[in-house]
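Supplementary Note 2. Why include the ligand at all?

Several targets in our set were suspected to adopt different conformations when bound, so apo predictions alone were not considered sufficient. For every target with a known small-molecule partner we therefore ran a joint prediction. The input for adenosine-5'-triphosphate is given below.
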Amino acid sequence: MKRARLIYNPTSGREEMRRLLPDVLERLDRHGIETSCHATTGEGDATREAAEAVSRGYDIIIAAGGDGTLNEVVNGMAGKDNLPPLGIFPLGTTNDFARAMGIPRRWEDYCDLVIENKTRPIDIGRANGRHFINIAGGGSLTELTYEVPSRLKTLIGQLAYYMKGIEKMASLSPTQLIIQAEGYEVIEGEFMLFLIANSNSVGGFEKLAPDASIDDGMLDVIAVKKCNLAEFIRLVTMALRGDHFNDPHVVYFKTPRMEVTSPGHVLINLDGELGGELPGVFEILPQHLQIFA
Ligand SMILES: Nc1ncnc2c1ncn2[C@@H]1O[C@H](COP(=O)(O)OP(=O)(O)OP(=O)(O)O)[C@@H](O)[C@H]1O
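The joint prediction is reproduced in token form.
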């Protein structure tokens, strides 16, 4: 018998996990996976539980919830030795990461992947000691993810980000950044934002970093140089189609590690959550975690 720990956000996805729980547990148990559960109670709880599950030597950890819960679970696990593989039941609105990994929508299909032990290694990003799996970034526009009220988010999903984004563009301002990436000369200048992608699915922009691969040991960095509102809107439209790489405002490169500093006050966004502020050291932990996928 294997032992699994299922950490789920009971409020995610119209409380879907509560409904599915008996069937999920029964299916796993029938195939030799004895699963105990923890319903998260609020911020930070999933991180504590995941760290505890690693220490207690569970064979499998499963995170059920939105990207927030997943990020918390990864933060509880990453950096430790002897990590068990991680399963993901995507229950949120965007589920960026699960989409990038091609995780099946049907819970039955996903349980079967866990039962058959189908895993693949993934890179984990680290920024000033905290971890991210999808994307990190900074600059005024990346701050909008904290400002979308969560009730609005669940009501109308991704549209909320775009609405807030349009509202925010009017007050878009550049920041002075110094970017020191391993393998490159120092880049210094005024930027609208910088994004560091680990996977290639970012808030509906599937073509933002089409080359980003989850297991290549590299971060894909996209920085947008100072431009006016019209130019920026044009760039966003181009980015939806993946045509932004030839634009003179776009700096794009891959690196395993980089340091970003600024004389200004710049917040760091990690997987849509607030992750401290610059200066920041961003690095990749190559193939650090096994995911059922
Ligand atoms: N019982 C709970 N009640 C309220 N908030 C919770 C609870 N458990 C966890 N949380 C918090 O809710 C945050 C968001 O959760 P999560 O991302 O799983 O759900 P979501 O908002 O449905 O997903 P998405 O962000 O994709 O819309 C988590 O980061 C966590 O801090």
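Residues 16-30 form the longest helix (15 residues). The pocket of adenosine-5'-triphosphate is lined by residues 9-13, 40-43, 45, 65-69, 72, 92-94, 150, 153-154 (CB under 6 Å). Comparable summaries for the other entries are listed in the accompanying table.
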